[in-house]
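seq/struct pair 1
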Amino acid sequence: MLKTFLCGAAAALALGGAAMAEPAHKMRISLQLPLTSHLGENLLLFEKEVEARTGGAVDVEIYDSATLYKDKEVPAAVGSGAIEAGVASLTRYVGDAPVVDVFYMPFLFNSEEKVRAAVAKGSPVRTIIEEEVARTGGQILYWQAYGGAIMLSKGTPIKRPEDLKGKKVRVFGKTLGDFVKAAGGAPTLISGSEQYLAYQRGTVDVGMTGISGVKSRKLWEVMDTVTVTNHADIEFVVVVNTQWWNALPPEIQARIREAADVAERTVRDRMSQIEADAYAAAREHGMNIVELDEADVAAWKAVAKPVYDAFLAAAGEAGAKVLAAVGHDG
């Protein structure tokens, strides 16, 4: 009895001491998607790895579902130091770093091998992009794969450029908007967290997103057709405020980078299965999944040249370098 009491008292003292010991560093992360999304699950993995590797010296707090900032607000919030970190679609940096939209050039990244080569640490594409983003007051800690871009519609699929003519299309980046314009559509920039209502209310007729987003946001409730265009590779990035990062002890930085490496590899390696599961869920909820044939892809590529011209005009030498690195011959 006495032994049990003493053990319990010792445990209580230990817990009390742990509770009184505040973490030395707080790392708040803004996420536009729910924690049930694969990006949310990946951040939970990152949180676990960081807190374990730093011995609790870093307290990671995740604010999901755009509760703090919408996707479009993350670059400014992180760059200003309003929050320590955030997850944003890479294209949200296009205003400051036009070169980031290389991933949204129509049908450029048409294989997983091309994508992996471009996002690999030390690759010309990744190096140039990270250097450009670093000018904003924030820097990329790690990349989160999101898969290929698809088109959502009601009733009829979007198989050819003419299917977009006169239609309002939800996009999430400048280059995707240029692509829609080239096909005769009217692009509308809408944050990921707002697209469900945009489809429900008929604000737009067509949507662009990734298939995993269809699952996590239950977009089958407001759209019924998926066209598997894979016309772009969607990349998200976890960005940290530079001043906050530079103020961290080097040892803490090293442990956070180790956690980031684990999280980045995990989401990249899981992406094919994540997409397969999302397509299966879409079918189960009654969505029509439509594939493109070679003639369809050729028709899209035929209208895409102005998009490449606009990218090179905006991104300049950096744009030419990344296109050459990917193997685009013009």
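seq/struct pair 2
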Amino acid sequence: MTTPPSVPPATTDRPVHAAGIFALSGTRTVHRLGFGAMQLTGPGVWGPPADPDACIAVLRRAVELGADLIDTADSYGPTVSEELIRQALHPYPPELLIATKAGLVRTGPGQWHPVGRPEYLRQQCELSLRRLGVEAIDLFQLHRVDPQVPAADQFGVLAELRQEGKIRLVGLSEVDVPTIQAAQAVVPVASVQNRYNLADRAAEPVLEYCASQGIAFIPWFPLANGALARPGGALHRVATELGATPAQVALAWLLARSPVMLPIPGTASLAHLEENCGAALLQLDETQRAELDAA
């Protein structure tokens, strides 16, 4: 990983801080490059990882590098990711925001099924509180809107949990603009987590709506780039110019794309973690941004 020479030395110990900050719902401030904890599990996001100690080391190093937003879900493992986070980081630093999700049940590796019954979402919130060892969940996200349950009922239980002080902020995942608006009629929405990356911008209308509303947009699968990273591709060309990796440039492009963008790249590798966090130090010029925008 090559650090641009213009980066002040003070930022290199905690490179994530160079990404800037965002205030969720205007109240809770985090740096805009977080850490996604989905990969701290076994294959198919199922069962424990092969090396739990290595995953604990990655979590601790992410915080050392300045990450103060860690995103997880009750379904990662299931339960494994939340349990590792507590083992690695509890008692949590006051600046650390842990976001978790409920609304998908698991029946095996790679198997995901939406369940949005209010009693189930409430139960999962209570279990996440215990596993994470907190009195309130900083950001509780509806992992999917269950099409078999009235959406207003799903949003309603999130509002109730917030009123009860069991969750502080509410987020949604994989939603369109009308769904966000329907949720906003019931409960304040602090974040939206949709798939978005340089090669897949289908959620562009959602990003634009979030920007207009001051809602954090958390892109999952942020590093998908495919042919763009191959020699001759836009990512490869810009990475070569900057002395960086294609993954770093992909993350830098996301950070530059919108001030509401909060990428959460995940990994179980310390080397990849260091690389991802170093993306916050990259500065894309207008020509490089335009080339990537057009890719």
